Amino acid sequence: MKFIIESSAVPIYNRIATAFAKTLMEFGHTVHFIDASGFNETDFVNTINDIEIDYYISTNELNVIQKKSELDESFLFEKIQTKIIFIHHDNLFSAFHNISYIAHKLEALAKVSKRSYHFCLEASNVDLLKAAGIPNATKINHASEFTAAPIVTQSQLGVTFIGHLMSSLNLYPADSVPGGQHLQVMAWNRFSHSSYAVQPDIENLVQDPYVLASLGPDANKNQLATQQFLMAGLNKFSSPLRGQLISTIKNHRVDIFGGDLSYGRIKDPLLVLQQSNVHYQPATENYQDACGIYQSSRINLNISSLQFDTAINNRAFDVIMSGGFLLTDQREELQSVCSLA
């Protein structure tokens, strides 16, 4: 079979796109791995429609094929004639903070539902798509690029975390997020109970006329879009939640790789944990280096994003496949993918 897959300027997204391309080629398929960022809209649509392929694979919501047209009210995937596979390794609308835009995109996805297929990391996203009239939606898990051979090694690091975070939920400006006070309560509930499900709270929130009134006139037009708008807002509390949890570690050294969102340029107390046992290390320029960190750490921490009630993120799989020891929040799906969970 023949596929087109877009590259991405976002490193983690590009790793996933590259991994899909590599694996499909290993199975004997033909893959056109393209950089679509240099195309204007008309040339992009015409070029893709002129290439003989079986599927166009979009691995993230920032791909060119998922952009809204500058020429009319459609999305570019509506103009592509071939079958399309959408991979959702984040929550479905995690990158968007406009109810009208989310509603419009849901409607556009429904229009191409007969020639499109959705694979979602988060189970509630499958329910969302089906509720929006998009039946071809299936739950998947992450796969890891790492296949490190088991070795007996002396741990060189103690407790480690690879990823971004902020220092605390207390300092995050909740008023800057629509519905932020309600969303911050959900974050604190997850802090108190790692498997606390936020999706039911989001669904209840959109039934509250006072909350809807605070979100503006678009909030009453499409309930599914409003839920996703709130979920995207809730995810803004994921980085401060990670810092809040790590700040409770007092008696062990913690090394954080790439955690400082300002890359050392800003000393704002919201951005950096000011604890003598917490040490910030540079981000891994080559993600393959993360395999060695996972393997040589006594404990690798994983703290799932608030946008996920059930999904297991890629860090968990990468730690395990690197031969490292994982300490993660409780997820029922862990039992289905790992008998030792």
Description of the structure:
This protein has helices spanning 11-26, 41-50, 76-79, 99-111, 123-131, 180-192, 199-205, 209-215, 223-235, 238-246, 288-296, 314-321, 333-337; strands at residues 2-6, 30-34, 55-58, 83-88, 116-120, 137-139, 157-162, 254-257, 278-281, 297-302, 326-328. It is an alpha/beta fold. The chain has a 6-stranded parallel beta sheet with strand order 2-1-3-4-5-6, sandwiched between helices. The protein has a 5-stranded parallel beta sheet with strand order 9-8-7-10-11, covered by helices on one side. α4 crosses α9 and α6 packs parallel to α10 (238-246). The protein is globular and about 60 Å long. The two termini are 37 Å apart. The model has no long low-confidence stretch (mean pLDDT 93).
Q: What features would you highlight for this structure?
A:
13 helices, single chain, six-stranded parallel sheet, 341 residues, 11 strands, five-stranded parallel sheet, alpha/beta
